[in-house]
Amino acid sequence: MKYVVVRPRGIYVFNERLEKEDFIKVELEESEIIDILSGKLPERVKKYIKEDYVFLGQKFEGYNSDFDRDKIRKALDIISMEEEGIDQSKFYIATKMGIAKSITRDQLIIQIIMLLDDINKITNLMVERFREIYNLYLPEVSQMIEDHEKFLKSVIGKRREDLMKEFKIDTTMGGELKDKDVEIINKIGEKILDLYKLRDTLKDYVEELMNEVCPNLSKVATPTIGARLIALAGGLRELAILPSSTIQVLGAEKALFKHLTKGTPPPKHGVIFNHPLIQKLPRKQRGAMARTLASKIAIAAKVDAFTPGKLVYESLIKELEERFNELKQEKK
Amino acid sequence: MKLIPLKENPKIFRDDKWRLYTKNLVKGQSVYGEKLIEYKGEEYREWIANRSKLAAAIKKKIGKIPIEEGDKVLYLGIAAGTTASHISDIIGWKGLIYGIDVAPRILIELMKSIGKRKNIIPILADASKPDLYLSIVPKVDLVYQDIAQPHQVKILINNVDLFLKNKGYVFFAVKARSIDVSKDPRLIFDEVGKELEEYGFKIVNKVRLEPYHKDHMMFLLQK
C-alpha cells in the first residue's frame, strides 16, 4: 500500500511509514485545478494511480482515502518543504473559470425579480412627480383617476381642451403653459409608460424563467412568490435546503429577529403572505395555511433543485386545496 | 505629514492622526478606494479601520502583529480582498496568501484587484471542506479567518489542524450576530474563547472592534 497526495505540480507518493518515495510530475492545467476542487480526479492523474494507492485527506470517487489527521499533517510537512513556487496566474485563470461555471439560471431570476421591485419603486416616484407637474396644467384629471398607469394613458398626447370635454371639466385650476412645456410633459409621461411596459415584459419573463428552471415551485408558490423566495434564500439550491419553517417566514426577517431578541409574537408568514390561498382566508386561519403552504413549497423546491425535470406540483396543489377547504369549513 | 513604523510591526505605518498605512506593493493601484500617498519617494496605501477588521484590531491595540515578509498565509473568507491586500503588502513578493472563499459573486471583486498582486492565490472553495483544497494549500505561518457562519470555530479548528505550522499564529474575527442573534455578544465571545482554549490554542490577546465594527471581536491565537 502507498499513500498519495495530488498537488498542482504533480503526485507525491509515500510509503506506509510516510516517507516520500516518489514524485510524479504532472503540471495541472486550469481546468484540472477546477476538477480537483470539485472532488474529481483529472484523467491525466488517474493513469498514475495504482490499485493499492490510498489518497491522504483527499476524496475522489472510486478511490480509497485515509483521513487520519496525523498522517495528513506529516505528508503535508514534507510536501511543504519540497514544493517549488506556485504559478499564481494559473489559479487566477482557474478561479475565473470556476466563477463562470458557478453561474446558474436561478441567479438570473434573482436579478430580474429584484429589478422588478426597483422598477416599481422608481415608477411610483416618477409618477408622483409627474402628477405634481401635471397639476400645473390640468389638476382635475389627476384627481379623478387614482390608478397611475390608467392616468398616464388617459392624458398623454391629448390636448387640454379635448381632455376637459372628455372629463366634463368646465373650469380648470391649471395654469397657462407654452406648447414647449406641454411637449416636455408628454415626453416625461411617455418614458414612464415605457417603464410600465418594461415591467410587464419582465413579469412575463420571470414567469417563463420560473417555469423553465423550477416548474414545481412556480406552480405551487406562484411564479412571483417563488422568485422572491429564491432571491431571499440566495438561490434555488439554497432555498431547497431550507427547512419549511424558515421558508414560512422568509421575507419577515425583521419580525422574526424582533421575536428572537425581544420576545414579541413570531411572524406567521413572510413573502408567502401574498399567496392567493392565504389571502382568501380570514386572518385567524392564515397561520395554519402558511405552515402547510411552506411545507409544500419546500418539497417543490427540493424536487426542482435535486431532480430537475420531475413534475410533482399537481399532487402538491391538490393537498394544498384540501387543507384550504378544511380551514374554510372550520370557520363556519 | 510623517509616517512612523509601528513598534509591533515595522511594515505597518501610522501618521500623526493614527491612520494606518502599508507600503503599496502594486504602485498606483488602489484596491478598495483607499487613499494613496507619497512619502519619501515611496507609495503607501491607507488602511481603513472601518473597512478592515485587522486594521481595527491594530488600532484597538491587539499588541502583537505577527505577519512577516515572506510569510505564507491561509486566508479563510477573503471576500473582496480588502484586508488581504494589506497583508499582501506586508508579506511582499516572497510571501503568499491562499485566499479561500465560497461566494463567486464576491470573488469577482477580488479578481479585479489581484490581477497584478501575484502573491494572492484565489481559490473558489468552501472553508468547511478543507479536503478539497488540500491539493493546493501547504503548511502556512498564519491563518486569518473572517467567516460569518454559525460554526466558524469548527471551521477554524479544522483548517488550523491541517495547515498551520506549530507555534503559528491565527487572527480570528468573530461576529457574534452570526453565531446567535439573540444572545449577548459578551457571552458568545466567552464561549468562543473557551472552545478555542479547549482545542489547545493560546489566546495571545483579544479586542472588541467597536466602534469600527459592531459586535465583533478579534482573537489573536497561537497554536
Automatic annotation (TrEMBL), chain A:
Domain named Nop: residues = 213-329
Which Gene Ontology MF annotations are present? snoRNA binding
> Superkingdom of this entry's organism?
Archaea
* GO cellular component terms given for this protein: box C/D methylation guide snoRNP complex
Q: Which family does it belong to?
A: Belongs to the NOP5/NOP56 family.
- A Pfam family annotated for this chain is Nop
Q: What is this protein called?
A: Nop domain-containing protein
From TrEMBL, chain B:
Q: What is this protein called?
A: Fibrillarin-like rRNA/tRNA 2'-O-methyltransferase
Which Pfam families does the entry link to?
Fibrillarin
Where on this chain does S-adenosyl-L-methionine bind?
A: T82, T83, D101, V102, D126, A127, D146, I147, A148, Q149
Any idea of its EC number?
2.1.1.-
The cross-references to SMART domains, in alphabetical order and at most eight, read: Fibrillarin
Please give the function described in this protein's UniProt entry: Involved in pre-rRNA and tRNA processing. Utilizes the methyl donor S-adenosyl-L-methionine to catalyze the site-specific 2'-hydroxyl methylation of ribose moieties in rRNA and tRNA. Site specificity is provided by a guide RNA that base pairs with the substrate. Methylation occurs at a characteristic distance from the sequence involved in base pairing with the guide RNA.
- Give the highest taxon in the source lineage: Archaea
Assembly and oligomerization: Interacts with nop5. Component of box C/D small ribonucleoprotein (sRNP) particles that contain rpl7ae, FlpA and nop5, plus a guide RNA.
EC supergroup of this enzyme? transferase
Coiled-coil regions listed in the entry: none
Question: InterPro entries this protein is in?
Answer: Fibrillarin (IPR000692), SAM-dependent_MTases_sf (IPR029063)
Q: Name one GO molecular function term.
A: RNA binding
Q: Family per UniProt?
A: Belongs to the methyltransferase superfamily. Fibrillarin family.
Lineage start: Archaea, Nanobdellota, Candidatus Nanoclepta
Which terms does the UniProt entry file under GO BP? box C/D sno(s)RNA 3'-end processing; tRNA processing
Q: Does the keyword rRNA processing apply?
A: yes
Query: Has UniProt tagged this entry with the keyword Ribonucleoprotein?
Result: no
Query: From which organism does this entry originate?
Result: Candidatus Nanoclepta minutus
Record key words, sorted: Methyltransferase, RNA-binding, rRNA processing, Transferase, tRNA processing
